[in-house]
Design goal:
The chain is built from nine helices and ten strands. The protein is 32% helix and 24% strand. It is globular. Helix 3 packs across helix 4 (136-145) and helix 3 packs parallel to helix 5 (161-173). Strand 1 and strand 2 (28-39) form a beta hairpin. It is an alpha/beta fold and 260 residues long. The chain has two domains: 1-91 and 179-260, P-loop containing nucleotide triphosphate hydrolases (Rossmann fold); 100-176, no CATH class. The strands form two sheets. A six-stranded mixed beta sheet has the order 6-7-8-3-9-10, sandwiched between helices.
């Protein structure tokens, strides 16, 4: 494992923030009064035991769910009532727990499909397929950056699970996000793929903000600058990994005993 991430000397600017974020489903409060600040050029982890509200917070931030209360700001603009497609065009892009690639397309074509929108080709359906050739250089750059050069012409369905997740990151990066939200990017991966994806995330975070839900605490310790711990929809603790891992409340939430 690489050495734990070092704290940055200067505080980067806040690019995504939430204040008093809450979501109720009937009488059940899934998220309660959550405040978050996500900074440029940092990896921020959202962790907590099962049922803590992590994915609900993701869905609220990306506007798949409308908050019951609170506000969300992206790059200085209030997006609390903004539609999810517009939020994505503003630069807030997410991945999902389940790999979302086109299984019968090649790696190259998956990335070219993702590149159509930022290059103004997504709605120009009358153009010939050859019009996408202009995207090849950028697609090849993204494919190489995530370590899929050897699989460039492979059918996505033939990739291992871990390599499909890597391809999904490449297609997400094709949208040129300002803030990248990754929902359990290491889920189901072997150790080799975990190392690869960790390196990719670390590199990606040099030029944009990354917020990730992750259960692999070794990964969180390795690459994350800041950690927010949720329990029952509320913030239990936050800080760097060293601080939150020593918090007795966090240990109790995860282990079920203060002596664990």
């Amino acid at each position: 494992m690489a050495a734990p991430v070092q704290e940055l000397h200067e505080e980067p600017r806040v690019v995504l923030s939430a204040r008093g974020l809450s979501k109720s489903f009937g009488a059940f409060a899934a998220v309660r009064d959550v405040d978050l600040d996500i900074h440029h050029a940092r990896v921020h982890a959202l962790i907590g035991p099962n049922g803590a509200g992590k994915t609900t917070v993701f869905n609220l931030l990306t506007k798949f769910l409308q908050p019951t209360a609170g506000s969300i700001t992206l790059l200085g603009t209030d997006i609390t009532k903004t539609a999810p497609d517009k939020v994505a065009r503003m630069g807030l892009v997410r991945s999902f727990q389940i790999s979302a690639v086109f299984p019968h397309l090649t790696v190259l074509d998956n990335v070219r499909v993702a590149l159509q929108r930022p290059n103004g080709l997504a709605t120009q359906f009358w153009l010939p397929t050859s019009s996408l050739d202009r995207l090849n250089a950028r697609a090849d750059e993204l494919i190489e950056n995530v370590g899929l050069k050897r699989e460039r012409d492979a059918i996505a369905a033939d990739l291992s699970y871990g390599r499909k997740r890597v391809l999904e990151i490449a297609t997400t990066l094709a949208l040129d996000p300002k803030v990248l939200l990754l929902d359990e990017p290491m889920a189901g991966m072997g150790q080799e793929d975990i190392g690869t994806v960790s390196s990719i995330i670390r590199e990606v975070a040099k030029t944009r903000a990354v917020l990730m839900v992750e259960h692999n605490l070794s990964v969180v310790a390795d690459i994350c600058h800041h950690v927010t711990v949720l329990q029952r929809g509320e913030i239990l603790a936050e800080g760097d990994y060293a601080a939150v891992s020593e918090d007795e409340r966090v240990r109790l939430a995860y282990m079920g005993t203060e002596d664990a």
